[in-house]
Amino acid sequence: MGRRPKRVYALMIALLVLAMAAVVLLRSGILPSEPSKPPATPEANDTANSTGGPSPPLPEPPKPPENATAPNPSATSNSTIRIATFNIQVFGESKRSKAEVMDVLAKTARNFDILAIQELRDDTETTLPIYLERINSLPGAKYSAVSSPRLGRTSSKENYAFIYNTDTMRLVPGSNFTFTDPPAGSSTDLFQREPFIARFQPLYGDAFDFALITIHTEPDGTPEELSDLPLALDAARTHYGNETDFILLGDMNADCSYLTASEAASLPLRNSSYLWVVPDNADTTVKSTDCAYDRIILAGTAPQHYGGAWGVFRFDEAYAINQSAAEDVSDHFPVWLELATGQ
């Protein structure tokens, strides 16, 4: 081959130098490898949060309780008292041996200043003291109790009891008695379990006391026993003399097949002298039945202390237990009312 001109070699060297310089500039970032783009601006409806993920949904507003108008039975004040009635189905040695059941029963009692209970069935009569001990093992005020004799025409006898908060209530000494059945001048036995009666006084507020009359009617004899219940009220009026405030309460079996609407309408207790606190459309039963068996009735001047607060205490909801556990406690829910002590 012939020799290339010197100008050709010089041009080749210059191009090589330029290529090497371009590589250095690209690696140093001085020259961009592609055209730059303007930064993105967020849209008005952008849901990305600062971490780059979707924004969390807004919390739903709290839902009101199912019975938003019903007062909370655990929130009493010094101007009111709460009284309840509770049939603790076949409450005896077997039931008291169940720790979970006794826990619910003990906590339930502490919602009220006075709790009238029915269906204490224990021939040793030791269940009530054990129940009271369990109530008092919980923090708070001490409770006491007064009970009836064992009552009933058959071998399956029951006691009534009034359990009360000693910080808020006083049992008037010597005031408790059982209705005499048959009543004087009669040979007819009126009640399967005679009503039990006692007198109480709040430890605060004005001078206000009242008599409680509790009953557990015989289901098949409910219309007759409720028709005769005013006789127990008359006995309390006579016994106490100057008492004018009366509260009748208990498992009256006053609904469904045991007391029809026509039978209820004909009761003496349905006249204007009495105020039925628990209405006919209430459901006081734990199982699938829908019946207002448990009732509270005001008589005399007691309605003057009543402002309309009452309720069915759903211990299953209060203590988050399932249906089976609730039925272990009882087949009845307690019902309660609130009375003002300052009138």
Can you characterise this structure?
The chain is of the alpha+beta class. It has a single domain (80-340), classed as 4-Layer Sandwich (Deoxyribonuclease I, Chain A), CATH 3.60.10.10. The protein has helices at residues 6-28, 93-96, 99-109, 127-136, 222-240, 261-265, 315-318, 323-329; strands at residues 80-91, 114-120, 143-147, 159-165, 169-171, 177-178, 196-202, 210-216, 245-251, 274-276, 294-300, 306-312, 335-340. Strands 5, 6, 7, 8, 9, 10 and 11 form a 7-stranded mixed beta sheet that branches. A 6-stranded mixed beta sheet has the order 3-4-2-1-13-12. Helix 5 links the parallel strand 8 and strand 9. The longest helix has 23 residues, at 6-28.
Order of helices and strands: HEHHEHEEEEEEHEHEEEHHE
Mean pLDDT: 84
CATH topology: Deoxyribonuclease I, Chain A
CATH architectural type: 4-Layer Sandwich
Distance between the termini: 132 Å
Radius of gyration based on Cα positions: 38 Å
Whole-number tally of structural domains: 1
How much strand? 15-25%
Report helical residue fraction.
10-25%
- The structural class is alpha+beta
> Looking at the structure, what is the overall shape?
globular
Largest sheet: 7 strands, mixed
State the helix count. 8
CATH class: Alpha Beta
Count of beta strands:
13
What is the CATH homologous superfamily assignment? Endonuclease/exonuclease/phosphatase
Low-pLDDT stretches: 1-6, 28-72
